[in-house]
Amino acid sequence: MRMLARRVLASAAALALMSGVALAQSKVTLAIGGAGCLCYLPTVLAKQLGEYDKAGVKVDMVLLKGGSEALKAVIGGSADVVSGYFDHCVELAPKKQNLQSFVIYDRFPGFALVVSPKHNDTVKSVKDLAGKKVGVSAPGSSTDFFLKYILSKNGVDPKSVAVIGVGLGGSAVASMEQGTIDAAIMLDPAVTILAGKYKDLKILSDTRSQKDTLAVFGGEYPGGALYTKADWIASHPKETQALTNAILATLKWIHSHTAEEIVAKMPKEMVGKDPSLYLAALKNTMPMYSENGLMDPKGAKAVLAVFAQSSPEIAKANVDVSKTYTNKFVEAASKK
Hints:
By secondary structure, the chain is of the alpha/beta class. About 50% of the residues lie in helices and about 15% in strands.
């Protein structure tokens, strides 16, 4: 009897060890195009809250300068999933890359076209940017797409503007303060940090609120999401569901806690030297975060419409935008 008990215990221990190994192997490399930006806060906060571990997936976060670099990491195979802007899925659809988002965490993009305080006298409108230097997080990133859209919308040839990669955080703020660029597409907390220093800061276009987003795009325009290759999602359903569960749990936590409580959970290096400015920026940003993680089909169509205006290739491609996202993992999580 004792021998049988020992065998049962030994088998149980072996099974536990095997399941532990299996769990440890469920690892995902997540590329983020500018983690210090508040638009990506849910992805970082999920790690801080331990939500990825609770969902049963080990996440290694790779922090990159901009969304285009995060995209390259997934296309090239050095990362599994991108935490970035959904519009990349639409951008690459004509090139048969077959990217899909599977959970949305930003209801609108949060971009602002800001004039360098050193160039307030020479840049008074979007039209004045012709022949000027304008900063974006990285060429080919969503900030670059937004710049081209705003320029075209205001009758300025995007080719007449010199696009400079300046990142999204301290490097972007420094470039603006030094006046090495005339303007930049920025996001919070960088916009709020600049506004705190320069009371006459000039913002030519803003999508940091629902009202402003509707004014710019004519509808809601989804921003940050987790996305990757459609075939990766198909071959890694458990990991995709785990990542979705973690983000949804984090969004729920965000909407049930104060901005002060959220700041207390964030890494100090991301909060920066002046926590009060980060807190002010977060309070402004809170409405941006999705409450349910779902892609609104109308929002996806709005992204396609914007790209079709500025890209002849996308306009001619007859993109089926419904294939650039899936809501099934969010819906599965809500059923549970």
